[in-house]
Amino acid sequence: MNKKGKSALVLLAAVMLLLSACTSGKKETAEESGAPGKPPEAKTETAIDPFRLPELVEVSTIKAVSPNERIPQGDTIEDNMYTRHFTEKTNVKFKYMWYASGDDYTQKLKLAVASNDLPDAMVVDERTFLELADADQLEDLTDVFQTYASDQVKQIYELNDGLSLDKATIDGKLLAIPNIVPKGDSFQEIWVRKDWLDKLGLQPPKTVDDVEKIAEAFITRDPDGNGKNDTIGLPGNNGVVTTDYGWNYDFKALFNAFGAYPSIWLKDGSGNVVYGSTTPEAKKALGKLAEWYKKGLIDKDFALRKNPDELVVGGKSGIFFGPWYMPFGTLTNAMMSDPKADWRAYAIADGHGQYNATVVPPSSSFLVVKKGFKHPEAVMTYFNYNTRFLQTPTPDDKKLDQTYVSLRPIDLNIGDPDAVLKKHEMIKGAIEGKLTPDQLSPEMQGHLERWNKYKADPKANIGEWGPPYAYLVGGQPMADVKFNEVYSLYTATTKTMEKRWSNLQKLENETYFKIVLGELPLDAFDSFVADWKAQGGEQIMKEVQEAVQK
Amino acid sequence: MVRSQTISAKIWYALLIVVMVLIALTSIAPIVHTVAVSFSHKAYAAAGAVSFWPKGFNLYAYKQIVADSKFLHSFMVSVERVLLGGAINFLMTVLMAYPLSRTSEQFGGRNAYMWFLIFTMLFSGGVIPLYILVKSLGLFDSIWALVLPSAVPVFNVILLMNFFRGIPKELNEAGSMDGAGPWYMLFRVYIPLSLPSIATVTLFSIVGHWNSFFDGMIFMRSVEHYPLQTYIQQLVVQMSISTMASDPNKYELMRQLSDQTLNAAKIVVAVVPVLVVYPFLQKYFIQGILLGSVKE
Amino acid sequence: MTGKAEQTRLPVRPQTELSETRPGKKSKKPFQAHYHLMLMPGIILLLIFSIIPMFGLLMAFQDYKISKGIFGSPWVGLENVTYFFELSDSKVIIRNTLFLAISKIVANLIVPLVFAVLLNEVRQRAFKRTVQTIVYLPHFLSWVILAGIFSELLLTDGIVNRMLEVFGIGPIQFLGDNRVFPYILIGSDVWKEFGFNTIIYLAALAGIDPHLYEAASIDGAGWRKQTRLITLPLLRATIILLATLAIGNILNAGFDQIFNMYSPIVYESSDVIDTYVYRAGILDGQYGFATAIGLMKSVIAFVLIIFSYSLAYKYANYRIF
Question: Where is it mostly found (chain C) (predicted)?
Answer without folding.
Answer: membrane
